[in-house]
TrEMBL record:
Subunit structure: Homodimer.
GN (gene name): lysA
Record has Lyase as a keyword: yes
Residue span(s) of domain Orn/DAP/Arg decarboxylase 2 C-terminal: 29-373
Keywords: Amino-acid biosynthesis, Decarboxylase, Lyase, Lysine biosynthesis, Pyridoxal phosphate
GO MF terms, alphabetically ordered: diaminopimelate decarboxylase activity; pyridoxal phosphate binding
Role of this protein: Specifically catalyzes the decarboxylation of meso-diaminopimelate (meso-DAP) to L-lysine.
N6-(pyridoxal phosphate)lysine modification, residue list: K60
Name under which the protein is recorded: Diaminopimelate decarboxylase
Amino acid sequence: MDHFLYRDGRLFAEDVAVAEIAASVGTPFYVYSTATLLRHFRLFDEALEGLDHLVCYAMKANSNQAVLQTLAQAGAGMDVVSGGEYLRAKAAGVPGDRIVFSGVGKTREEIRLALEGGIRQFNVESEPEMAVLDAVARDLGVVAPITIRVNPDVDAKTHAKIATGKSENKFGIPIARAREVYRLAAEMPGLRVIGIDVHIGSQLTELEPYRLAYQKVAELTEVLRADGHQITRLDLGGGLGIPYARSNEAPPLPTDYGKLVKETLGHLGCEIEIEPGRLIAGNAGLMVSEVIYVKSGEGRDFLILDGAMNDLIRPAMYDAYHDIISVLEPAPGVEPQPIDIVGPVCESGDTFAKQRLMPPLRAGDLVAFRSAGAYGAVMSSEYNSRPLVPEVLVKGDQFAVIRARPTFDEMIKRDTIPEWL
């Protein structure tokens, strides 16, 4: 469920007409619904009720400060994967003891930053990282709390570029070597082992891969405890999918996911952490774009938008599907026609959809890309010297620009000309 609905033929974001935002900030832009963000966070929180738990929002999905503060005030922790994300979380008012640091390539500087600023735990991905973390912690005279990410060799049955739990993926240590690596960690004075971390991928649309992975984690917990390790926390990652195409079968609900967690891991008495990102932010956002031209081609027509692949790269990168709708509701009985929906960047890859059924549209009309709140604005760029698009947050009948569109002068002045030119 989201809070983007038609009223009297016009698309609204909560109680604000999308066309009103477009008139104020220009197109293209992203708009997020506070009510949807909070609803999706609370679904996860309630799904784990009865377990000691913390829902750590995966910031990589959408790291705007206003989004972070909205979720932090509701009780969310944060999952970060870089020093920049760590500083964003702190700037949003999230205390260090509610921030989990993940990622395969943490640098010494990032580790030091988090140890000095406070951290809930590091999710360690490799033995070399473990050695560096130990050295930095001892240099600072502190002990770093860690989980070790195990790779359970489970096929998440998702897109190859976002699968993370198979043996050929770069993430974590093979679960078969876990006892050896945990023994090594226990010998390092700068580290304190507190748990196990696992994350098998993103946009999962069925629960069975989770069941297989969590059963392996449960078995490993018992083995490590028998070896003398204090396993008190299980970080289960995120990855639950969202329905990008409304005609598709819906992915599992957070309530069903919560039942699975309780069935497979509830008997262990561990604190549970989960790291949802896409399911919290994805359907909470739209990208809104204006039609520049309708072009007739050889055997097909093109809807050319002012939004491009640099603004929303998921279709070009992942062949991702987004529902695209008219901001003005089509009149009853209007027959949709197939059309290619493209952007203005000079690459054939700048294509959002091919032969998509759309109502008749003209230059100046607005369209909205649904399910664009996750991995949209955060993955955007200024390719072709196109300014980053603004982000807008709606709450009830209010809206505010939470990231402004830079001017061309601001973009150009970031460059520095060497004195010899």
